[in-house]
Amino acid sequence: xxxxxxxxxxxxxxxxxxxxxxxxxxxxxxxxxxxxxxxxxxxxxxxxxxxxxxxxxxxxxxxxxxxxxxxxxxxxxxxxxxxxxxxxxxxxxxxxxxxxxxxxxxxxxxxxxxxxxxxxxxxxxxxxxxxxxxxxxxxxxxxxxxxxxxxxxxxxxxxxxxxxxxxxxxxxxxxxxxxxxxxxxxxxxxxxxxxxxxxxxxxxxxxxxxxxxxxxxxxxxxxxxxxxxxxxxxxxxxxxxxxxxxxxxxxxxxxxxxxxxxxxxxxxxxxxxxxxxxxxxxxxxxxxxxxxxxxxxxxxxxxxxxxxxxxxxxxxxxxxxxxxxxxxxxxxxxxxxxxxxxxxx
Length: 345
Known about the structure:
Distance between the termini: 15 Å
Radius of gyration: 20 Å
Number of strands: 2
Oligomer: single chain
Strand order of the largest sheet: 1-2
Shape: globular
Number of helices: 16
């Protein structure tokens, strides 16, 4: 297992927080999906792990429900009951699922959570349609909540950032490993904030807004979520090279085999050390991933990535300390944030 920063401990309460929030949100999420066209709703239910192709009940994992938990905790941190944040939780979960359906098509991924992706199970066109329907349903759900118009504006900004991050991520693949057109670590940070952090921050901010929080509180929670997104993505990159397949569900050196421009790789190339040219040549030729992983570590890519994660966790703490939040929920929020960075989702 990859050695992660010593500050990243997983409190025992975090899994229980996720369970509690899922149980609170699940009835409203099911009710929303049941309003969809039956065929489209089946694809949505399949993506959540609720059914098999054809509609038979399933027990597949639909994910941990991270974003919906952040929305519930955002409402509670603002001093409101968790149920007040449920419309926000449903909306961000629908948008997240919509983004996964489309991402899987763009990336050509055939499996997710050990099952065929929606486009592989139902076809590309139907999967695009299901994603579009999920997004429309998210807007409808949020707009019907008290304070909905303001909340929809916040969601729209996050969605725009998510699209921007996905566009950058796709464009990174065509850029060279070296030279003036190479991807620099600061560009990676912006991509990760947009692609991963925007919706995490949005979930917490929306929960707080529906809970009656001042805009400054929502902004602080949004910043915390965005920094969390960068930290999470960087640690995920470390696991994608050095993680234990039994834990991550990914093959050893999988990201290197796919020649992904992840943070450890970019940091190693940006080091300017003599071995960086050898690494670039190895990556360009699709050479031995084990040799590449060793070079990245020697060039400081792994340590730089873990330091980056620590920096963004510190920024999360600073954002949470910047505003007055309810003590109990914010401690649960802190526990959840550290747990998420430590674990591979």
